[in-house]
Write a structure and sequence with these properties.
The protein has 594 residues and is α/β, with parallel strands linked by helices. The chain has two domains: 320 residues, ABC transporter transmembrane region fold, CATH 1.20.1560; 147 residues, Rossmann fold, CATH 3.40.50.300. Helix content is 64%, strand content 10%. The chain has 20 helices and ten strands. The strands form two sheets. The chain has a six-stranded mixed β-sheet, with helices on both faces. Strands 2-1-4-5 form a four-stranded antiparallel β-sheet, covered by helices on one side. Strand 4 and strand 5 form a beta hairpin. Helix 1 crosses helix 3 and helix 14 packs across helix 16.
Length: 594
């Protein structure tokens, strides 16, 4: 099993499909937004200038002021009407687009979260969580940038170009031809230059994620940095990542400056040529002053639009680069999937059967080799062995955090690969050696074992786990927030909260990863009673090093280098004088050194 994430290739079409999948739910609002975007452009930018043309033609043709004045007033009133229509339409657009963007962005972020959280244990073991958060947020924000550019820039450009070309074609076709040629050259040049910039955008997004992940990794391990006095070392590591990002950002911005410079030259040259031709036509009497003003209004408007075109393309490609990383993860198949037509697990007695299990993380690196272990209903089994023997791997395979490559695991005769993952994990209570809590209240953390539990049930579980005592001493009691990863609590307190959570869950199968390892002797004595209650009438699998835990087991299974080499009761294994006896002789104050 490779530790490197191989992401599928993602194109801009894939990103647009992700947008479209959600956007189709808002089809009516999108139509309203498009119409309310087009109307202001037609009324204020295409029709209104025609009346400015008529206005200046009247002024320059020497008309009688008494006759011309009412007509001029009518013209400006009509221009006012066009602007009022544009204002109303834009106000409609502004409210509709808020509805569209907030709704779709919410859906995109929810969908991305739902899919990414479904990835396997292995995926999250090899991926920075802070980087995932950043990718999801950038994916959501990228949609806002794309829709802003589409409605505020692309649609207005398209409508204005079409409208201007139609109007000028009837006035002077050669001017329309000049504008079309300029537009085609400009767009082609912008496309080529923007394509040239894409790798810089993608690289900038990539190294920014790396710099963010490096920072988050250091900040989340601040205590370790302090204990080893590695501030300079960590600063150096982040400095390398930060400098790499700065160089990538600088390169991206410099490429943008080059693109702006090239397009500016083209715009200035084109504007000069069009006005030069218009002046010549005016000088030959082929166009009026009003027409000259109309051309000026149209050309200035188009210049402003096309001047922004390179920025529009850059924004679109940057949005694509921002969305690309999240879409890659959303296109990546989940490592662990429910089988087609998987059924819920039904636990009747809690028998667990490992049949000839083979599993490895990397080719040629064996972890479990031919493991065969049958655990009877209600039996308490301890897994013992040196570090790396495969104890934790067996537990993770039982929880189906990884899929086995050989053999099968069944619970009450049901292959765990043929049942739903949700029902499998609902049937197992797991207490890890180093429990990590949510930055939520103590009540919420305990209720995680049973989210619909009453306050009375939470308190009862807390009392059985002997954490009610320390919770009562806190100023906010069960409403106390525990800090990120539960950092405000001691290791023993976190352990007891985790046990309370397992008590509340009350699953028929219990897995303990040395659940008392973080407790002092007094706390351990208190918790043993709770564990006795917790283990009652359950099938129990314990990864054990501690004497007090081992003494409560029906059977001890000894693993070494991925194989079961001994199993039996404590006395039986001591008489065999094998690895267990050796480990037992090395124990110190209740711990087995491994």
């Amino acid at each position: 099993m490779s530790h490197r994430q191989e992401y599928p290739k993602v194109t801009i079409i894939d990103v647009l499909k992700e947008y479209g999948r959600v956007a189709k739910k808002y089809w009516f609002a999108l139509i309203v937004a498009i119409i309310s975007t087009i109307v202001p452009i037609i009324s204020a930018s295409i029709i209104a200038p025609l009346f400015y043309k008529k206005f200046f033609d009247i002024l320059t043709q020497g008309a009688n002021p008494l006759v011309a004045t009412p007509e001029l007033i009518n013209i400006i009133l009509f221009i006012l009407l066009m602007n009022v229509i544009a204002w109303i339409s834009f106000r409609i657009y502004s409210f509709v687009i808020v509805h569209i963007q907030t709704g779709i962005m919410n859906n995109l972020r929810q969908d991305a979260y739902d899919y990414i959280i479904g990835h396997s244990y292995a995926f999250f073991s090899n991926t920075f969580s802070s980087s995932l958060v950043q990718k999801i947020n950038r994916f959501m924000r990228s949609f806002e940038r794309v829709t802003d550019r589409f409605f505020q820039e692309i649609i207005p450009i398209m409508v204005r170009v079409i409208g201007v070309c139609i109007v000028l074609w009837y006035i002077q076709p050669i001017l329309t031809l000049a504008i079309v040629i300029w537009m085609v050259v400009f767009l082609l040049l912008s496309f080529v230059l923007s394509r040239w910039k894409i790798p810089y955008d993608i690289n900038s997004a990539k190294v920014e994620s790396l710099a963010t992940a490096t920072m988050a990794d250091s900040l989340s391990n601040h205590a370790t940095i302090q204990m080893f006095n590695r501030f300079s070392y960590e600063s150096s590591l982040f400095g390398i990542a930060n400098t790499t990002y700065t160089k990538a950002l600088s390169a991206k911005w410099n490429v943008s400056n080059v693109i702006d410079a090239i397009q500016a030259v083209l715009n200035v040259a084109t504007e000069f040529l069009i006005f030069y031709v218009a002046i010549k036509f005016w000088g030959m009497g082929m166009i009026s002053v009003g027409t000259f003003v109309l051309i000026q209004i149209y050309i200035i408007g188009l210049m402003n639009n096309f001047w922004a075109w390179s920025r529009i393309l850059r924004d679109l490609y940057e949005a694509f680069a921002d969305a690309k990383e999240a879409v890659e993860i959303m296109k990546l198949s989940h490592g662990i999937k429910d089988a087609p037509h998987a059924k819920p697990l039904t636990v009747t007695s809690g028998a667990i059967d490992f049949k000839d299990i083979g599993f490895h993380f990397n080719e040629g690196s064996g972890v479990l080799n031919g493991i065969a272990l049958n655990i009877k209903p209600g039996e308490r089994v301890a897994l013992i062995g040196p570090s790396g023997a495969g104890k934790s791997t067996m537990v993770r395979l039982l929880l189906r955090l990884y899929d086995i490559q050989k053999g099968s695991i069944s619970i009450d005769g049901q292959d765990i690969t043929h049942v739903t993952q949700g029902s499998l994990r609902e049937s197992i209570s797991f207490v890890p050696q180093d429990p990590i809590l949510f930055h939520r209240s103590l009540k919420d953390n305990i209720k995680y074992g049973k989210t619909d539990a009453t306050d009375e049930e939470v308190i009862c579980a807390a009392k059985l786990a002997h954490c009610h005592e320390f919770i009562e001493t806190l100023p906010n009691g069960y409403d106390t927030y525990v800090g990120e990863r539960g950092i405000k609590l001691s290791g023993g307190e976190r352990q007891r909260v985790a046990i309370a959570r397992a008590i509340l869950k009350n699953a028929p199968i219990l897995v303990l990863d040395e659940a008392t390892s973080s407790l002092d002797s007094h706390s351990e004595m208190l918790i043993q009673d709770a564990l006795d209650v917790l283990m009652k009438d359950k099938t129990v699998v314990v990864i054990a090093h501690r004497l007090s835990t081992i003494s409560k087991m029906n059977r001890i299974v000894v693993l070494d280098q991925g194989s079961i080499i001994e199993q039996g009761s404590h006395d039986e294994l001591l008489r065999k004088n094998g690895l267990y006896a050796k480990l037992w002789s090395l124990q110190s104050q209740g711990f087995i050194k491994s």
